[in-house]
Each structure stands twice: as C-alpha cells, then as structure tokens.
Design goal:
19 strands, elongated
C-alpha cells in the first residue's frame, strides 16, 4: 500500500505529534543520552525501557520509532484527533490483535545548524522489515546525512533534488530555496516524499521519471543528488542504490548532463562512487566525465577494496552474508570486478558550478574523520576560487593584502638526536573544517607570519627576499603557487 495523506489527515497527525512533543528534542529528552545512543547503534531495548512510562510520547515512540505493538485505547489517545482507522487508511498503521502497529517508519528529524528549530520535521520511509524489497524506500541514513552536511546553503531561487527518495534533501532545501523540485523514478519513493511534505506543511514540486527526463529544458540555481551510485554489474537489485548501468557509467552520464540544467553560477552537489581501475589514476577517470565550462571540486572520502565494497552493500541490504543467495550475489559481483580490472572503489563528494570563466578543477583526498560539516567549506571554496580567478595575474595577486585565517596554527616537529631534539620540519594547519595541512619551509613560514593584512603580498615578498638575500623574482616564482594553494584551502584569506 502506498501512503496517502490528505490535508485533513496530515493536519490531524501533525497536531498529535506536536502535542506529544514527538520531535527530535522531545524524543531525545524522553530516552536520555544512553538509550538514545544505543538506538543509534540499532539496540532498541534500552529505548523501550526508557519510553515505557513516557505517556502519550512514549506510546508514539514505541509505536512509530521502535516498531512495537500498542493497544487501541493508547493509540487512540496518542493520535487524537486522528483516528487510528484513518491513520491505517492513509498507510501509516496496520491492525494487530487488540491494537495497532506501524506500517511505515515515521520519525522526527531536525536541522539545527543555525541554532533555531525551524528545521524540525518528520520523515516517512519503509520499515526495516521491508528492506529486501526491490523498491524499498530508505529513511534518514548515513548517505542522506553525509550529503546534507556537505551541501552549501545559500539563498537560491530554485533547487532540484534529483532522486529525492523520501525527501530528506528537499526538506533541507526548503530552508534556503524559494522553490524546490524533487524527482524520482520510483512511484513508492514519490508517494513517501509526498506524504512527508504534506505532514510538514511544505510545498515541494514532485515529478516522476528517470534522471533529468522530468525536468527537460529547465535550469536550476542549485542541484543536489544522492543518486544510485553503488558500482556493480548492470542490474537493479534495489532501486535506491542500483542504477542498472555497469560500474560508474551512470555517475559519469549524470556529471556530463549537469551543466545544461544549471543556471550560470548554479551549483550542483552530489555523492558518488568511482572505480579505481588497474593502470589508470582515479582523477583521470573522473576528469574525463567533466564537461566544459564548470568549476569542479572532487573530494575522495573513502576507498574500499572490492571485497569490502561488496560486503558493505550486502550488509546495508540486510542480507545474511552466509546464505546461498548472498554468496551467489557476492560471487557474481566480484567476478564482474575482476573482469573490469577493478582494484578498489572510491567514494566522495562532487561539487560542480557552471561558469563562464576559466574553470578550476581540483581533485583531493580527504580520508579519515571530519568533525565539522563540509557545507560551509564548499561555499567557502567556491568563494575562494572566484577570488583567485579575479587575481589570476601574478601582479594582481602580489597587490593583494592577505591574512592568516584565525583557525590556523604553525606546527614544528623535531626528532631526537645526540644533543637533544633536532628540528626537522614545520607545517601550517587549519583547526576547523577539513583540517587542511601544508608542510612549509622557513621562508614560507616567515611569509605567512607577515600576513596580517597590513602590507600587500608583493611588499612582504620584497622584505623576505632582502632578509634572506635572495632575488625577489626567484622568491616570487617559488611563493605564488603555494600562496594560491593556501588561499584555496582557506589558510590565507583576503584582508578586509
């Protein structure tokens, strides 16, 4: 059954959820830190225990969040003014002996990135019990959270959420886009998103069809996409992850098609995976997909060997990896990788911006944990690329006043020797964002030390050349490439 929330059903359910404080803050307060953390690990018993004396909120948590069965009287009281039978007719509940159980996953979800509660929502998706169905609709998972945290959020006229699924990215988009459009080829996903937006009282245009087909001829100020990016044989086991095209061909086609659907200056951000093929470098592979006229920042966050890649996505689908079915699927997947000479699979973020200037294309590895959301970093990167483009000539860069960013520190390191510690090098590092780090020699450290925004870069280089008895032209040639990289990574910032 596909969910369908009429305006009256959505209003009544919203009233019940708000009255019981079935929100991110309300649920967290009810469960407490330990049980909430356990729930995040998939351990439900601590949450059941914490919610057992929680009144109407406890009923909703056990029913909608934890998958429990609740008696009719308790559900009737907790959902009032929505009758349980009407909730069942809308696809939310199913009857059980003497009561009700959830037919869908309905959970609170919040965005407090700017410190207010305007981003309190509810998200509808399929229950885990339906996880092995081909058209299973996932909820707020790791990929959704990863893309949401990496998305630049600046006011924009129109935004396209390509492959919206249950609508998580579109929810975020309603906070900074005047008009939001979501597309998906799966009718079940669109019905889930439609119910989610109705429940949250949001106006989002939803269109059915593959890739850009539903928005042919249209351009947007921003595009976000968590597409079916899992490389494998050309088949579709699960619509949310498999494109039906072999390897990373679907991602390549998507990247090539993006600019024709972006306004000038429009930005596209998406998750993706690319193959590491024997005999070629992964940046060269992804670079071949990039069309003309786009700035591109491609950040590789993870690299998995074939066995880890296959096992990860089989576990994600809830398969018993020891079963004959899972082994047969894994064998076919690994055989395909061997035939395609795949040595590993990379995963990361792709940011593209349509430009009429000289495009900037950067590939970087950012392996390991990153504590801060990358969205502000993406926005900053785009600004810094614009600034560098405006200062592309050496004389323009030398005339600029720069300052070391407040979050930057100088690290010096030494190794033990016969007479104590002997200095062996230094590096500058940002303590925020991606924690970019650059090794520097003494001259570069001295140049950075002088960047307070008071003197132009050219004046600082002249002073440094005099102090080190080096020709200024030689120092300029050595310094400017490093300065551009420092600016691109936010180590140096233009002085106000």
């Amino acid at each position: 059954m596909l969910p369908h929330f009429s305006p009256a059903t959505a209003d009544a359910l919203r009233t019940a959820l708000l009255r019981a404080d079935y929100t991110t803050d309300g649920v967290r307060a009810l469960l407490g830190t330990a049980a909430h953390a356990a729930l995040g690990r998939g351990e439900v018993e601590p949450a059941f225990r914490a919610a057992r004396d929680g009144g109407e909120l406890g009923v909703l948590v056990r029913l909608l969040l934890l998958g429990g069965h609740e008696p009719n009287a308790a559900v009737t009281a907790a959902l009032a003014p929505l009758a349980p039978a009407d909730a069942a007719a809308a696809g939310l509940l199913r009857p059980v002996d003497g009561g009700w159980a959830a037919a869908l996953d309905l959970r609170p979800y919040g965005d407090d990135s700017d410190g207010d509660r305007a981003g309190d929502w509810w998200v509808l998706s399929d229950l885990d019990a339906r996880r092995q169905e081909r058209d299973h609709v996932t909820g707020v998972g790791a990929a959704s959270l990863t893309l949401a945290a990496a998305t630049a959020r600046r006011p924009v006229g129109s935004l396209l959420d390509l492959g919206t699924g249950c609508g998580v990215q579109a929810l975020h988009a309603t906070r900074h886009a005047q008009a939001v459009t979501g597309t998906d080829l799966a009718p079940r996903a669109l019905s889930m998103a439609r119910a989610t937006f109705a429940l949250n009282g949001l106006d989002v245009e939803l269109l059915e069809g593959p890739w850009f087909e539903p928005v042919a001829g249209r351009r947007f100020g921003q595009i976000v996409s968590n597409p079916p990016f899992v490389p494998g044989p050309p088949r579709v086991d699960f619509v949310y992850r498999d494109s039906g095209q072999g390897g990373d061909a679907a991602l390549a086609a998507l990247v090539r098609a993006l600019p024709e659907h972006l306004e000038l200056g429009g930005v596209a951000q998406l998750l993706g995976s690319w193959l590491h093929v024997q005999g070629e470098d992964w940046p060269d592979r992804v670079r071949s997909w990039l069309p003309a006229g786009v700035d591109a920042w491609i950040v590789q966050r993870e690299v998995a060997d074939p066995a880890l890649h296959v096992g990860t996505w089989q576990r994600d689908a809830g398969l018993d990896l020891t079963s004959p079915t899972a082994r047969e699927q894994a064998g076919a997947w690994l055989d395909w990788m061997e035939r395609e000479r795949v040595e590993a699979v990379g995963f990361g973020f792709l940011t593209l911006r349509r430009t009429d200037g000289d495009p900037t294309v950067v590939f970087e590895d950012l392996l390991g944990g990153v504590d801060d959301p990358l969205g502000p970093e993406v926005a900053g990167w785009l600004d810094r690329v614009d600034w560098l483009r405006a200062h592309a000539r050496d004389e323009d860069l030398l005339g600029a006043r720069l300052a070391v960013a407040p979050s930057v520190v100088l690290e010096r390191f030494a190794e033990p020797g016969e007479e104590g510690w002997a200095a062996v090098g230094a590096a500058v590092a940002r303590l925020d964002g991606p924690r970019w780090r650059h090794e520097v020699d003494d001259e570069a450290a001295a140049l950075l030390a002088g960047c307070h925004g008071a003197l132009a870069l050219g004046e600082l280089v002249e002073l440094l050349a005099f102090a080190h008895d080096r020709p200024s032209g030689e120092l300029v040639a050595a310094a400017l490439p490093a300065v551009r990289e420092f600016v691109r990574h936010g180590v140096l910032v233009p002085a106000p």
